[in-house]
Amino acid sequence: MKKILIAFVGLFTLALTAQAQKKSGAIQFETTIDPAAMATANGIQLSDEMRARMPKSVKTNFELLYNATNASYMPVEETEDSNGGGGGGMGRMMMRFGGAGGAREYYYTFADQKLVEVFDVSDTTYAMASKLTVALPAPPVNRQGQQGANATAPAATSAVVFLPGPPTLEVVKTDETKKILGFNCNKVIVKSIRKAQVLGMDKDVVDETVVWYTNDLGFNFSPNPNLWTEGTVLAIENKGNNTTAKSIEYRNVSAKDVTAPKKALPITADEYKAKMEAMMKRFSGGNRQGGGPSGTVRNVIIN
User: Fold this and answer.
1) Helix, strand, coil proportions of the chain in percent (round to 5)?
2) Is the pTM of this model over 0.85?
3) Do 228 and 236 form a contact (C-beta atoms < 8 A)?
4) Which of 63, 130, 199, 292 could be a cystine partner for 140, CB 3.0 to 4.6 Å?
């Protein structure tokens, strides 16, 4: 009886240890962009020559590190073996760029649901408080006051001209599920409906993004903080731009790797917006055609 009790305690301890290990680990994500598909989704007409010169796809790797209290998400790059053997592995890298289109580092605190974005502007590292939500980014605006696809492409090549005003957002929960990395994931469709002129006719342009999330990991996260409804988002799908979790490794993660750098200078969203607008004015002061960084591109449906 004593041996049975000891064996039971041993198995129970082993189960608790395995469960504890799953509270800390690394998830590798891959983002694949199809430039031609993104241009088409934005209403930009491309010639055969332009399509031929575009890459079929551009892939970027990201890593989510998490422990019981915090998480961080940032780009990674392939690195050679430190012993000179080559063949690689993945290495975390600091890759901060100013502007909405640039890669950023994200730091999450689970207890108070805080999110901090860390990025560089003019050789200065900033930390901006943010949050997980459903709030599609505003379309770019050029110095002629044009928005959306017509702000990022010459008027002659744009079939869609968005009208002023914010989009109408709609979140559609579905019963569809699938497994990602062994986790049960639920499907949500995020719709953004905007008024536009399509070849001179008034139409509703619907941008659709599919979000797959799981509650099995026990914390909130999304590769895109503006595309989150609940749980841990493991995949975001839209035409020409997909992000998917590819692998998971349960291992110890230090507090340092999931804590925002202390040297980052705090900045508010309003201060950041004013700084970007000032930079845009300086940038477009010469002969350059002004144009802001592009927002997230989604599957466009015209009704």
Assistant:
1) 20, 40, 40
2) no
3) no
4) 292
